[in-house]
Specification:
The chain is of the alpha/beta class. The chain contains 6 helices and 7 strands; from the N terminus they run αβαβαββαβαββα. It has a 7-stranded mixed β-sheet, sandwiched between helices. Helix 1 packs across helix 2. The radius of gyration is 15 Å and the shape is globular. Bound molecules: S-adenosylmethionine. The site of S-adenosylmethionine has 14 residues, from strand 2.
């Protein structure tokens, strides 16, 4: 997990390096304690340009995000305790320059992955990036997920997936910017174990 975190942070830093000048918007879906994003922002030259919303269902996680952001002097970081699958939460932060979807695709059904990718076109603005992860255990879904991104006009930019038991990938959205539909839902977070037992 430490290696995966380091790779996610590497891809976040590269995405911020390439982002357009001016204010930047970041969305983290099922953020955990936000270590990936906050770990990068603490020393990144774009840190004060970034406004972000990090959503997690567990209050202990969002409290940890808020307190870490405060310690680092990051002013525009909002941690929200809520169901991150609901699009209503993203109305003020979309379209985003960067969307983090890490630790999600291994915990939702294939049908919901496909649906989430399609709805992600409403989270990313044209040119925005999405960083996602997925384990590579059998059946390895990484190539299939890449093909679904491709079908929705996301171009693969970075991939750390070879010779590893997890994939960390960045895709860039090249389609048109679309409005949020507030009552849409992306997924049911059923969990890795339930998926294996199904
Ligand atoms: C596997 S962890 C990933 C955390 C972080 N993104 C990472 O990559 O390390 C999944 C997180 O999703 C959160 N979670 C589960 N269901 C959720 C939901 N419906 N809405 C928001 N967060 C959820 C859990 O509390 C947990 O922190």
């Amino acid at each position: 997990m430490a290696l995966r975190l380091a790779e996610v942070q590497n891809q976040i830093a590269l995405s911020l390096n390439k982002a357009p000048s001016g204010p930047l918007r970041v969305i983290s879906v099922c953020a955990g304690q936000g270590r990936d994003l906050l770990g990068v922002l603490q020393s990144h030259f774009r840190r004060d340009d970034v406004s972000a919303i990090l959503i997690d269902l567990e209050e202990q996680n969002t409290l940890a995000i808020q307190s870490a952001a405060q310690k680092l002097g990051l002013k525009n970081i909002r941690a929200l305790t809520a169901d991150a699958s609901k699009m209503e939460h993203y109305v003020t932060m979309a379209p985003a320059d960067l969307v983090l979807m890490c630790g999600v695709f291994g915990n939702i059904s294939d049908k919901d992955i496909r649906r989430t990718i399609s709805i992600s076109r409403r989270l990313c603005g044209h040119g925005g990036r999405i960083i996602w992860t997925r384990h590579r255990r059998n059946p390895d879904m990484v190539p299939r997920i890449c093909s679904w991104f491709h079908a929705e006009k996301f171009e693969q930019e970075l991939s750390a997936a070879e010779d590893k038991d997890y994939g960390v990938l960045t895709h860039r959205y090249l389609g048109k910017t679309r409005p949020i539909v507030p009552d849409e839902r992306m997924f049911d977070f059923v969990g890795y174990r339930s998926l294996r037992e199904a």
